[in-house]
What does this fold into?
Amino acid sequence: MKFNTKTIHGGQHNIDPAYGSVMPPIYQTSTYSQSTPGGHKGFEYSRSGNPTRAALENALASIENGEFGLAFGSGLAAIDAVMKLFKPGDEIISTNDLYGGSYRLFTKIFEGLGLKFHFIGMQDASKIEAYINEKTKLIWVETPTNPMMNIIDITACAKLAKTHKVLLAVDNTFATPYLQLPLDLGADIVMHSATKYLGGHSDVVMGSLVVKDKKLADRLYFIQNASGAVCGPQDSFLVLRGIKTLHIRMQRHCENGEKVANFLKSHPKVDKVYWPGFEDHPNYDIAKAQMKGFGGMISFTTSEKTLESAVKFVENLKVFTLAESLGGVESLAGHPASMTHASIPKEEREKIGVVDSLIRLSVGIEDEEDLIEDIKQALG
Ligand code: P1T
It folds into this structure.
């Protein structure tokens, strides 16, 4: 089955044996009757499993070319489950440019529990090996990174991970499986904030993991059930519905993203534009090789290079909404330094380019003329 068909049908057989409904029912139940202790029909308690969530988890596994999907109450809950695979003293190498909440989870929760993190630039994957030692258990990659749109070579990271027998996890939130399939490139775990493009309509908070290996899936399932950060049936239904239009939404996000990125690049009030589709992006060749398109996420700095100019821009927008999050049908603008990445100390964030004049756009699927007109008037 090819990708577009998978978004609609992948993992979705025998959805409703009772009435043949085309969409799975929302099984809004916490528990299931048993004829005798242990005599149930596959589900016993909705933390451990729920048919609507199972339909979504099967769809997630299908679109990521994996075998096992797990859905969580948020993207961070999914990352939290991955980190619980490890024990005090274990080391993790992570991209230094990543979602501020992931950084906060790593440094404020898991460092306190004894995990050691190395935050490094991974744009040149050959630099990673120097940080691997016998305690290393995981390489954590976000690509494209949030918010600097750096591109990391997943195939090169996978080779390193295999050589040193460590796991490779890829946060695929910005790219989505429409553009990039980390498991096919050798990653062990693919993670999503399903809140974003998978859900696609800014109406749900959710996270997911997909893996190929049964033993790894069993360990993650144990954590999902034992820690209990699952998502509910209604949210599962919404994300399953969102996935069915992922391919057409992504097509338009990419088209509009390209138009907006080029417009910004040519504007005198804009300094730098970060988007992996530019031929002068430092890792353009890697982006071209591992992604099917370049997506609708763009960051840029104002030519005035001040906090005030960035704040004024986002306040002036009329079609774009100033808000946290990304990946919905509507265009959003954010100010990473004070919003999504405020939990990263100023010196750390400025080292990677998250300066006060940086603005991040999630380009939606509206008419491109309206988006460009809006940016033009806000810059003006
Ligand atoms: O918000 P949540 O569903 O828990 O997902 C966390 C997360 C993980 N990984 C990436 C790459 C993300 O972008 C996010 C969430 N990001 C935002 C809310 C944001 O505006 O960047």
The mean pLDDT is 97. Residues 118 and 139 are 10 Å apart (CA to CA). The first helix runs from residue 3 to 9.
